[in-house]
Design brief:
The complex is a heterotrimer of chains A (534), B (328) and C (385). Chain B has 328 residues and is mainly alpha-helical. Helices cover 71% and strands 1% of the residues of chain B. Chain C has 385 residues and is an all-alpha fold. Chain C has a domain of 260 residues: ABC transporter involved in vitamin B12 uptake, BtuC (Orthogonal Bundle).
């Protein structure tokens, strides 16, 4: 009578300071394709990691076929025939397809691998489901699409029939996505049950039977896809009243400070480009926001803009100085190749609040004051003949600490590692904004901060803009996007798919563009909707 | 012609310890642990097995059953090396310490310990352990009539059981690494431990195994070095443990390449001693103590080769990075 | 304004010092046990000798200071490299080349001591370039390069000395074939000045070497803590990515750091051999002097001022170890030192645990003032779901 193959009941999973899953109930029917939808931070990956045994929930139970089970690690999950294809593939690059599939469950006689037996089973599975792979190809040589098929075959080889996919289409080409959806449908027809995590509405509408929507760790609801629409799903995903209203004057944009032309950045994870031929500009006195779901190229774009990584083609001009010019081979050979260093860009007035504050933004083992001068220690203000002017550094640090209310155990001499995430972020923001840059590149500047701090930083961003500076904000928080920016550019799969005036659009509309359901025109960079010319 | 036989025989003799120890290093690094302590492991293996040989000699068992005794001695070398290596495993896997620190500590410990122990057992001032002469395999051992032929000169000049075992162990290494379940899993731990973990492999246990095997092979390598170097153990292996690491890198962490690399380096080492007798090698007559030029040769050649092969060099991707299960 | 709560063990480096003292304590206990095992009757007396000889008389103390000088230098060499995130296992080769440069300057060219010391610095610096360069240009593992160059350096030095006949003791009337000349005979000007300290302390060993070493330690300390260059080096060592973000050139700093490390090691060689008490012997074994810098640096957590003390400590127990003879071999000291290094691995763990506890206590305070604490990785994981 119970047609649910998996039931996750009242699951609560906490990490220090945050409740990632809050009393979530999800039921998976046998033979269905069930989508798990939500924004970044909604709790989707965590929930699936609980099911796969990577995390243990604080509260709640999991039932399989009506019986309570305990899943302590992936081995337990596997024993219950639950398999998972992770967003970041867990494949050994130098092994062949065959070796990766059988790793851990190798058919063997006295320890010697029986390769022909393995090969037979893999080929049979491959043919049955139409998963084209070359068993002897080495992983690092094959396409991402084939790599994913290897991950799927790993599950099938282990006779898994509850299959979890974590953002499976993030790295696929449109054609590969079609193939994947066909494969999922054939699995379902056979009676296998599929859970897939996604933020892409098109795919949910195309292939899922039911969809559970999560928001900020809680379950908003489960709907039949046949009975719903993209608009409704989008509303469930982001729909809430706008929480913070930032009071600000009209923007008075001046001359162009930053000009990006045909920027293309390769991806480290797969053979597609992460950023595809992106062009736009940012003017003095305006806040432009690059909005989008994480993983659509924003990270690579920012690294290329700030000089941390090298793009493959394009040009960038900052305040009339060309800081980047890389021509692909097709263009004229006479053009000079320019690639200004990080230091040069900083000197020209670029400031960067990085996405990963611990990896790039701070030297955790340094003190607060040492970190506050990270971008300026070489200036005459802070050093003379190579010797650091400790007094000046101290004064400066104290000023910033006061101004930005940076809290730490011992003030300027606190080791940054021991500071809370929120205060670490405040330190970085303080440092970068106080530089009075011509262009401030802020990537998720309010991540991990409390309400008061968020408000303060938004005020600072607006103040910088009112002072005639250009601000490029990259954010995943739609509230922030709507409230702080003067102009919104939505990035999806490495391209700019839409440009909006926050006063004239809605969160729901943005959501549709961010999830790839819509795009403005064929070449959205050349199309400027009338209302952006303020 | 005799010179040629001597050269080939000496090359093989010196290549054997390099081969064994480099293979050991390969197993360790393939599992993800950089083993800087090979030098120390060699010394411990040599120390224990030589003491054991002396004991067998004194007890009379040795001269009566020489090759059997040798076999036992080899096992002692392997076992002591493996145990010593476990100290490195513990520091690297459980304590997640910097693998070079742990290795350096063991390298300092081994020769000092060797001297202290030898002293304690053999009495004051006696810091060398003489190797019994019956350990060598001669024509007599095999029941062959001694003749002055090229082949006999080649084989019997310094023939020890360790040479035979090194060939056997090489073959076993190739098979284990590429054809067994264990080998596949070991390699996955050095490349992508998260992937291995996600399919249920115990990365910690695999790394212990990898380091243990490196100790096993390194210990035998230490004995082989001592046999090659002369008639006694003198608490040193003259940097062979590190040279073996270079051989391993040059061999791109693959067994057959490592064999080639070992022979290559041993050859350069030997050339120095025979420079006088080989007609086409420069003799540096005007330079005093020109032997040093030839002594430098293996190291300089190593550097050149490392530079040339650095592009194709492909170390196990996750070596040297302690595996933390908590981080996914 | 944030309140500053004073905590008992909270001055910079307190956890490191504690961890080092614990390692030393355990190492010495291990040594005592070893002594007891080897020779129970003599163990007690030997251990007492070990621990007290250095202070027993002024000439013994002088020996401690004399031996500490090159240890300080090699410790600085290894420690300085550690601070930049590099492991300078090539200190031995740099030490040897530095020593050779000093001796050649002294004996062959009859230069005064300060020039010779400068040559030692240059020699070591030159030898230190190679691992850094090979890593930066060809991406060859710096540990292997350093090891290879240890040997190449030693052989090259032996070769050179053999071909400069003036260098050998034989030339100056000495009996031995295999060592360099006695400086007192060959060029007294090259000897490091004693300033009467030798008569003061009744020791033939004492000279101003230790003070020169201390000066270098202070220089190292100044570079690391007070200059922009030191700031950049440490940033590279702590977090390569953040230093990239800050516009610092990692490759340039790697090479410079190795050059400075090499220079320190070279001076160490110079100080030892220009003291006149030892002659450079042409052997085919690597000098252990370079490797002894490693425990010195580890015990002091690579802090230059701390290195002065850890060098004195290591020298102290070495002098004590000599006094344990003939009942015990002096190599027991090396065993104790290696145990201490091995425990340094534990020390890192202990230090992490102690720091983490500090952090957790910090967080409890912070959460009063701040909504969300510092859980970095888990939080980032979560926010990506």
């Amino acid at each position: 009578m119970n047609d649910y193959v998996i039931e996750m009941l009242n699951i609560t999973k906490e990490f220090p300071g945050i409740r990632a899953n809050d009393d979530i109930t999800l039921r998976l029917k046998r033979g269905e394709i069930h989508a798990l939808l939500g924004e970044n931070g909604a709790g989707k990956s965590t929930l699936m990691s609980v099911l796969f045994g990577l995390y243990q929930p604080e509260k709640g139970t999991i039932k399989k076929d009506g019986e309570i089970v305990r899943i302590k690690d992936p081995n337990d999950a596997n024993a219950l025939h639950i398999g998972m294809v992770h967003q970041h593939f867990k494949l050994v690059e130098i092994f062949t397809v065959l070796d990766n599939i059988i790793l851990g469950v190798e058919p063997n006689k006295m320890g010697f691998i029986q390769e022909s037996e393995a090969r037979k089973k893999v080929v049979e599975l491959s043919d049955r489901y139409g998963l084209k792979v070359d068993p002897d190809a080495v992983i690092e040589d094959i396409s991402v699409g084939m790599q994913q098929r290897v991950e799927i075959l790993k599950m099938l080889y282990r006779d898994n029939d509850i299959l979890i996919f974590d953002e499976p289409t993030a790295v696929l080409t449109p054609q590969e996505i079609e193939e994947l959806m066909d494969i999922m449908r054939s699995f379902a027809k056979e009676g296998k049950s599929i859970l897939f995590i996604t933020h892409k509405l098109n795919e949910i509408m195309a292939v899922a039977d039911r969809c559970t929507v999560l928001r900020k760790g809680q379950c908003v609801g489960t709907v039949n896809v046949k009975d719903t629409s993209k608009q409704e799903l989008s509303r469930m995903m982001v729909g809430r009243d706008v929480e913070f209203v930032v009071s600000k004057d009209e923007a008075k944009p001046g001359e162009t400070v930053l000009e990006i032309e045909h920027l293309t950045v390769p991806s480290k994870l797969h053979k597609n480009n992460a950023v595809k031929d992106v062009s736009f500009h940012v003017r003095a006195g305006e806040i432009v926001c690059l909005a989008g779901i994480e993983g659509n190229g924003q990270t690579e774009f920012v690294y290329a803009l700030t000089g941390l990584e090298k793009p493959s083609a394009g040009s960038i001009t900052l305040k009339n100085e060309r800081i980047l010019q890389l021509a692909p081979r097709a263009q004229k050979a006479g053009d000079r190749q320019i690639n200004a260093s990080v230091r040069q860009r900083s000197k020209l007035g670029m400031s960067h609040i990085p996405e990963d504050r611990q990896k790039y933004g701070l030297v955790l083992d340094y003190t607060l004051e040492e970190n506050l001068v990270l971008q300026r220690y070489w200036q005459p203000e802070f050093q003379k003949n190579g010797f650091i002017k400790k007094g000046e550094v101290r004064k400066y640090a104290e000023k910033l600490i006061r101004q930005y209310d940076i809290r730490s155990g011992q003030g300027p001499v606190t080791t940054v590692r021991s500071m809370s995430g929120g205060n670490q972020q405040k330190a970085i923001v303080a440092r970068e904004i106080d530089k009075e840059p011509e262009l401030l590149v802020a990537v998720q500047p309010t991540r991990g901060l409390d309400v008061g701090a968020i408000e303060y930083i938004h005020k600072q961003l607006v103040a910088a803009r009112d002072n005639g500076k250009a601000v490029l904000l990259v954010s995943l928080e739609l509230d922030e996007v709507m409230n702080v920016s003067d102009r919104i550019l939505v990035m999806y799969e490495g391209e700019i798919v839409g440009e909006f005036d926050p006063k004239k659009t809605t969160v729901q509309e943005l959501g549709l563009f961010m999830a790839g359901a819509k795009r403005q025109g064929a070449n959205s960079s050349t199309e400027r909707t009338a209302n952006t010319d303020a | 012609m005799k010179i040629l036989a001597d050269i080939i025989s000496a090359t093989i003799l010196f290549a054997v310890p390099l081969l064994l120890v480099a293979l050991g290093g390969m197993f360790s690094e393939r599992s993800g642990v950089i083993n800087i302590a090979l030098e120390g492991i060699m010394i411990i293996g040599a120390l224990c097995s030589c003491l054991f040989l002396r004991a067998l000699d004194d007890s009379g068992f040795g001269p009566m059953h020489p090759q059997l005794s040798m076999l036992y001695a080899i096992l002692v070398a392997a076992g002591s090396g493996a145990l010593f290596a476990l100290l490195l495993a513990f520091a690297s896997v459980n304590l997640k310490a910097d693998q070079t620190i742990g290795g350096t500590a063991l390298n300092m410990f081994a020769p000092a310990f060797a001297i202290v122990l030898t002293w304690a057992i053999q009495g004051q001032g006696q810091t060398t352990i003489l190797i019994p002469t019956w350990s060598r395999i001669t024509q007599e051992t095999l029941g062959i009539v001694e003749k002055d032929t090229f082949l006999q000169n080649l084989v019997f000049k310094s023939f020890y059981q360790t040479t035979l075992w090194s060939i056997v162990l090489l073959l076993i290494a190739v098979v284990v690494l590429y054809r067994t379940r264990f080998g596949l899993r070991l390699r996955s731990c050095g490349e992508h431990p998260q992937a291995a973990d996600s399919v249920g492999i115990n990365v910690y246990r695999m790394r212990y195994a990898g380091v243990g095997i490196s100790g096993f092979l390194g210990g035998i390598g230490g004995l082989a070095y001592t046999l090659a170097a002369g008639s006694a153990f003198q608490s040193t292996v003259a940097g062979y443990g590190f040279l073996a690491l270079a051989v391993m890198i040059f061999g791109n962490w693959k067994p057959w390449n490592i064999l080639a690399a070992s022979l290559f380096f041993a050859l350069f080492k030997i050339l120095g001693s025979y420079s006088g007798s080989i007609p086409f090698l420069p003799k540096f007559e005007n330079i005093k103590a020109s032997e040093y030029i030839y002594l430098m040769l293996p190291y300089i050649v190593t550097m050149i080769v490392l530079v040339l092969t650095s592009k194709k060099s492909r170390a196990p991707k996750s070596e040297g990075i302690p595996y933390d299960k908590g981080r996914r | 304004m944030p309140e500053k709560k004073k905590r008992s063990f909270n001055f910079p480096g307190s956890t490191s010092i504690l961890a080092s003292l614990i390692s030393i304590g355990i190492g010495l206990i291990f040594g005592l046990i070893l002594l007891i095992v080897l020779n129970p009757s003599a163990a007690g007396g030997a251990f007492v000798s070990l621990v007290t000889t250095g202070f027993r008389s002024s000439d013994k103390f002088a020996k401690v200071l004399y031996q500490a000088a090159p240890l300080v230098m090699t410790g600085l060499s290894v420690g300085f490299a550690f601070k930049t995130g590099l492991f300078n296992i090539g200190a031995s080769g740099q030490y040897t080349v530095g020593a050779a440069a000093a001796l050649i300057g002294a004996i062959q060219f009859q230069l005064p001591w300060y020039v010779c010391l400068l040559l030692a610095l240059v020699g070591g610096a030159f030898w230190g370039i190679f691992p850094g360069l090979f890593k930066a240009l060809f991406n060859v593992n710096e540990v292997i390069t350093s090891i290879m160059f240890n040997w190449i350096g030693m052989f090259a030095v032996n070769l050179t000395i053999n071909n400069l006949p003036m260098m050998l003791a034989k030339y100056w009337g000495g009996a031995q074939m295999d060592r360099t000349a006695n400086l007192a005979q060959a060029n007294p000007n090259a000897l490091i000045p004693r300033l009467g300290l030798d008569t003061l302390m009744h020791s033939n060993y004492m000279n101003t070497g230790i003070f020169i070493a201390i000066v270098f330690a202070i220089i190292a300390w100044v570079i690391l803590s007070k200059t922009t260059f030191g700031y950049e080096l440490k940033a590279c060592g702590f977090n390569r990515n953040a230093s990239l973000y800050a516009g610092i050139s990692a490759k340039r700093n790697i090479v410079l750091s190795m050059v400075i490390s090499g220079a320190f090691a070279g001076v160490g060689g110079g100080l030892y051999y220009l003291a006149g008490n030892g002659q450079y012997t042409l052997v085919k074994q690597l000098l252990t002097a370079g490797f002894n810098g490693i425990p010195v640096a580890l015990l002091a957590s690579s802090n230059p001022i701390g290195i002065i003390f850890s060098a004195l400590f290591v020298s102290y127990i070495q002098v004590g170890g000599d006094a344990m003879q003939p009942d015990f071999v002096k190599e027991i000291i090396d065993i104790i030192i290696s145990v201490i290094i091995y425990l340094a691995a534990f020390a890192l763990l202990t230090r992490e645990l102690l720091t983490r506890r500090q952090m957790l206590r910090q967080e409890e305070e912070n959460s009063a003032a701040d909504a969300l604490p510092a859980a970095s990785e888990e939080k980032d994981e979560v926010s990506q779901s």
